[in-house]
Amino acid sequence: MGFSFGWEPAEGLPEIAVGSSRVEVTLVADGGDTVLTLRHSGIPARYGDDHAEGWAHELCRLAEAVQTAT
After folding, report:
1. Which residues of the chain are under the pLDDT cut of 70?
2. What pLDDT is stored for residue 42 in this prediction?
3. How much is the pLDDT for 69?
4. CA-to-CA distance for 44 and 16, rounded, in angstroms?
5. Which of 19, 40, 53, 59 could in theory staple to 4 by disulfide, Cβ–Cβ 3.0 to 4.6 A?
6. Would you state the pLDDT for residue 37?
7. Residue 51: is it exposed, middle or buried by C-beta count within 10 angstroms (0-12/13-18/19+)?
8. Which helix (H) or strand (E) holds 69?
9. Whole-number Å distance between alpha carbons of 57 and 50
10. Which pLDDT belongs to residue 11?
11. Considering the entire predicted model, what is its pTM?
12. What is the model's pLDDT at position 15?
């Protein structure tokens, strides 16, 4: 699954134009587990660390929600 990522310019937000980057998510069965891989490409290098931190936070929240639901 994939989608484009970005937003209209606004004060206080990094400059990432609408549709200028791409997020790809893959899910692969691994025995009784599922491995999720997220790749965010097209982000300007100066914002890469911030986005990696943000995705890590959101993926932890997703993992917690899945564990709670099972």
Report:
1. none
2. 95
3. 79
4. 8
5. 19
6. 97
7. middle
8. helix 45-69
9. 11
10. 87
11. 0.81
12. 84
Which distant-in-sequence residues (6+ apart) come within 8 Å of 62 by Cβ? 36
Write out the residue range of the structural domain in which residue 47 sits. Answer: 2-69
In total, the chain counts a number of residues equal to: 70
Tokens representing residue 20 in the block: 């200028």
Residue by residue, what is the 3-state secondary structure of 2-65?
A: EEEECCCCCCCCCCCCCCCEEEEEEEEEECCEEEEEEEEECCCHHHHHHHHHHHHHHHHHHHHH
Phi and psi at residue 9, to the nearest 5°: -55, 135
Q: Which two tokens stand for residue 1?
A: 């699954």
Q: How many domains does the chain have?
A: 1
